[in-house]
């Protein structure tokens, strides 16, 4: 899974992303048809995981990834396990976008300690105006 490969596709002017070319949107439809309690982002395949990152790009553009990459390089967080990495990513994404993305992460099946969602709520950010999980190219 590589968000930079999607950026390269855009840079080279490819008419459709590999997500569309591989008909991977159907995987998302199947995944989102499951009850939220049965969704587990970390158990998904890489094509499915990449869609989530692409939806963030569709919602927030290149500047989101530029900021995320820059801030992570500057902060150099010491993250030793998946739970810590997910917490960092979720909070950093909400801070950068200035939106409460709890619904997005829950719909994507982010299985994290509830304290992460409390931390997001404590940021007092507005929810997005639209459901980001429905974004497509």
UniProtKB/TrEMBL annotation:
InterPro entries: Pep_M60_3, Peptidase_M60_dom
Domain Peptidase M60: 1-61
Gene3D superfamilies tied to this protein: Peptidase M60, enhancin-like domain 3 (1.10.390.30)
Name of the protein described by the UniProt record: Peptidase M60, enhancin and enhancin-like
Organism per entry: Olivibacter domesticus
Lineage: Bacteria, Pseudomonadati, Bacteroidota, Sphingobacteriia, Sphingobacteriales
